[in-house]
Amino acid sequence: MIWVFPREIRYGWSTGSGRFDLLKHSHRNPRVFCTGRHRLLTGYAMNVSHFVRESAAFTRATLTGRWSRWLILVLLGLPWMLLSSLMESSRILEGTTIHWKLIPWEEAGLLILTGILCNFFISGYIVRLLEGDPVPPEFDNLPGLGLVGIKVQVIPLVWILVPSVLALIEYNVASSGLLPASPWGTTLGSILILILLAIQLVILFIAVQYGIVGAIRFARTGSVLEAFSLRAIYATLRRIGIVNYYLALGIIIIVYVAFSFGLHALSLVPYIGGIIALCLWPPLVVFCVRFMAHFCDEDMAPPGGKPGAGGVSVPARVPARGMIPEILAWLLIVAVLFVLCFTPLALVIGSVSGFFVR
Fold this sequence. Notes:
Elements: H1 7-10, E1 14-15, E2 18-19, H2 22-25, H3 39-42, H4 48-64, H5 67-90, E3 93-94, E4 97-98, H6 105-130, H7 142-159, H8 161-174, H9 188-221, H10 230-240, H11 242-267, H12 273-293, H13 324-353
Helix pairs in contact: 4-12, 5-6, 5-12, 6-7, 6-9, 7-9, 7-13, 8-9, 8-13, 9-10, 11-12
């Protein structure tokens, strides 16, 4: 259990001998972490063990309370399992080399398009999980579910747009002959790349924090703009505390990696391994998403809860009629952002690793 003491300790208090000096008395209680200017690091109380238990119970209620939800999630992941089996059976991918001539384009293209469509519905269901409703969400209002799934794709693409542009600049610098022949040489080009790389790491560090909280804000408000409300997201991170935030995020990463290794090991079982792994991935996703949804519970109340500090109300479900223009518009936005984000990364990876060698 990870605890940080409440407001009176975080902000300090006046006593007969003057203001409480936490830095002076912190050795008396190792659970007290911060006051004043240190609030951003450790924030407010965060009962991680309760989050773990509640997320596990919610996952069980979501998937075993109504087996149709589990079945739908399995079916939505089926195209990618079939595509992986197709790639392995045709020996298309060997190491970092793709044998383009061996790709059965009709079958692969159909599976990729179907998988992308299914991903939108999965993402839409994840958004519903992030709403924090104590009642497990249903797979209803499919047009609205798909629309929300498309919208949420914008959030990570926008957050990684600047690092991608910096990667393109680094690629141009590296290919322009400004780098020294000796690996230990120093030129203007190498210094510029190091500076850009440092900026990239800082931006990615911030993007991870702001992107997750932004996605939760989008789920709670229904507004994509709320996912980029820097002041509101900063207030949430300040309340949680960076230390608590990354400790909780570390738990999710450990659970996800351990479970993923287990699923990968199961997928290696001949004939039925891939099917078993496909059937077991929904509990991992529901648990991790539910755990992260608790990050904003005090700022924005989930449906049926008390209003939090943000006082943001949860919007109604997206209506099923008249969505085609809006869906097409958001698909165009996602497509443009995707090209802008991943073209620079593809150029860099392709030039460095030879990934696109025929």
